[in-house]
Amino acid sequence: MVEEYDAIIVGGGHNGLACGAYLAKAGLSVIVLERSNLLGGGCVTEEVTLPGFKHNTASNYHGWIHYGPVYKDLELEKYGSKYVFPKIAFGMAYSDDTGFVAYRYMAGIMKELSRFSEHDAQAFLALRDQFQIFKEVLKGYIFSPPQQPSVLPALLQQSHEGRELLRFSMSSPKNILNEMFENDKIKSWLTLNTVFAGIAHDIIGSGLFLPAMTVIEGGWGCSIGGAISLPLAIARFIEAHGGAVRTNSHVEKIVVEGGTARGVVLSDGTQIKARKLVASNVEPGQTLLKMVGDEYLPDQALVQVKRWRASEMALFTIHMALKEPPDWKASKDCPDLNNCWGVGFGYDSPEVFDSQFADIRRGIPPRDIAPFLVTNTLYDPSQAPEGMHTGVMWQLASYDLKDGGPEKWDQIKEDYADRCMEMLQRYAPNMTPSNILGRHVVSPLDIERRDISLIKGDLGSGETSQEQMGTFRPLHGWGPNRTPIKGLYLCGPSTHPGGNVSGACGYNAVNIIADDLKLKKWWVK
User: Fold this and answer.
1) What is residue 252's three-state secondary structure?
2) Which of 148, 158, 407, 521 has its CA 20 to 30 A from that of 458?
3) Which phi-psi region, left, alpha or beta, contains residue 221 (left: φ > 0; alpha: ψ -120 to 50)?
4) Is the pLDDT of residue 9 over 80?
5) What is the pLDDT of residues 370-405, one digit of tens each?
6) What pLDDT score does 217 carry?
7) Are 162 and 485 in contact (CB under 8 A)?
8) What angle do CA 255, 260, 265 make, to 5 degrees?
9) Which secondary-structure segment (H or E) carries 253?
10) Does 176 score more than 60 pLDDT?
């Protein structure tokens, strides 16, 4: 007997789960199908080094999920999701053994900035204050289906402050930093914050991401028990409201009859019918070209899907099981550096980013190695055996290597990891082989192998650039989150507003679905 549900969600990433959760409480029968043995997509935790050491193998920092309505609407604390918000989230260790830490409170940040440049301290304050005006507009932009491209400029152009923000949106983080700041170390810290959010520092049209990073309410959160605790909580919400969630269920085909999505076929041949809709959390190429098929798509859609572009920037990652956390040389100058959740090192000047991106664009593993190391266990000891620690080190990299293509990573990744570790030991001398109990190296190719939505190792599921944002993310002409196939919706990070752990893509999709099905929006008070 063929199973049948009102709504089938393809992909158990946190956005797909969020979409399913809202629909389940709205009274629809829902099933979420995840191809992996673990829920979460990019929001997942695994023991990849040694037993008892939990590693977030993709997403680690969660800030936007607390900025919008999803966390409260779905009562995720009630269903097992908890966070700690480190008072000292980010820091920098410089080659001259000076250090910088970014506190959660403004007085602390201002004091730190003033140690390097009073001018830049005031510039940062001005940037933050200027952007506070736009904070509610930003929230509305992120947690609403995208408007036509002319709407936001028309709103902003009515005031001086709005026009300045509009100008930011047309610029790049690099240009804004060079206009406002003078100290290379401070510019490096601000650039790193933007780049590790998935935004290339020199892409025109992404300038607003720089000040946006300064206004996340409550700061960045560390998910207790690992990143996977968030999607597991959403899954419990779905099940509590009558829905079903299944892992090891790879959707091979989306069934289309008469131009309408009617169900799915799994790789093992299982058929599941959809009475009302199918929503895919998977990126558009996999969804529309492989699961649906070219023959069901009009030419305009085919062109748009085929030109969809991953970010040129991917991550090279080293997970470590540690006896003790890093002891930074720069902590003698800045003692709180050893309490930082994440520390960047090797970034004395923004020119390092220029060098790294130049190599990335040439298809060369960056020669200027400058990673970012996160120690989750400083704030959540449950992620390692008692008294032990975990570390995850990220280094910017290219997916497609000039000499040998992406497969070349299989040959060189351990050697490149050794080079990254040598760099780490220069800044934190205690990070010796005797301190490292286990190591697991993940190349950009490995990222794509694990999650088919993370094309080319792009954790944002599509480059964040002007022509791939808003109504253009990823298709235009059928309305937000819709496709040319009736009853088939997109709800993953390839839709507006893009990557990061916010639940916004699933939330925006469910609002569109509710409009189309004339569902009562229980979440709108």
Assistant:
1) strand
2) 148
3) beta
4) yes
5) 999 999 999 999 999 999 999 999 999 999 999 999
6) 47
7) no
8) 10
9) strand 251-257
10) yes
